[in-house]
Amino acid sequence: MRKPEKEGAMDLRSDYVVSVSDVVSGTTTHLDLTVPAPEECGVGLIGVPAGANLDLQISLQSVSEGIFVQGQIVTQALGQCSRCAIDITKPMNEPIAELVFWPERRQALISEGDDEVEDMPVIEDMHIDLELLIRDAIVLALPFTPLCSPDCQGLCPECGQPWKDLPAGHRYEFLNPAFSALDALAEQMREN
User: Fold this and answer.
1) How far apart are CA 104 and CA 78, in angstroms?
2) Taking the domains of the chain in order of start, what are their residue ranges?
3) What PANTHER family does the record tag this protein with (predicted)?
């Protein structure tokens, strides 16, 4: 997870920022949102294009340490097969579960020696920013080597066509140039 930007820098006009002022202690608030995918929401050969729709079904639950964000992100990732390079679409329905800390609670845990909590998101002015939570959930679910199918054989090394598009007996005879002189000698011997 990336370290949150410095506190106080939250843009309340952002599509990813939601108010938690209605989330009272011990209650849960449900939200259904559609937001654009953030920049850099992918890995290598596959990702969710910036601006693509992300459908969020999340619940915000008030707990003593902060607000627990839980739910699902539904979208589609676009990319290329790592073996045959054809375009692929991967439907995504990814869980999201993250605790967003009250600033004073996070500071108390840091004072107690909990170094891991320093990188955790915080509530600012009764708002939370979902962007990093969304990006982390999507990126961690993407394959580093996406495939069009689990049994993809890739490309023919000679003609560069996908094996699945070639006939069953497709092959190339590899002739080693070192043996071409011997092949010529054998041909001469057959003629004599």
Assistant:
1) 41
2) 17-152
3) LARGE RIBOSOMAL RNA SUBUNIT ACCUMULATION PROTEIN YCED HOMOLOG 1, CHLOROPLASTIC
Region at 39 (left for phi over 0; alpha for psi -120 to 50; beta for the rest): beta
Q: How do residues 98-151 score in pLDDT, each as one tens digit?
A: 999 999 988 888 888 888 888 889 999 999 999 999 999 999 999 999 999 999
pLDDT at residue 185 tops 90: no
Asked whether 78 and 46 are in contact (CB, 8 A), the reply is yes
Give this prediction's pTM: 0.75
34: helix, coil or strand?
Answer: strand
DSSP 8-state secondary structure symbol assigned to residue 187: H
Q: Are 136 and 6 in contact (CB under 8 A)?
A: no
CA–CA separation, 95 and 136 (whole Å): 11
What does pLDDT average to over the chain?
Answer: 87
Please, which pLDDT band fits residue 2 given cuts at 50, 70 and 90? very low
- For residues 131 and 23, the answer to whether their CB atoms sit within 8 Å is no
Q: How far apart are CA 177 and CA 187, in angstroms?
A: 16
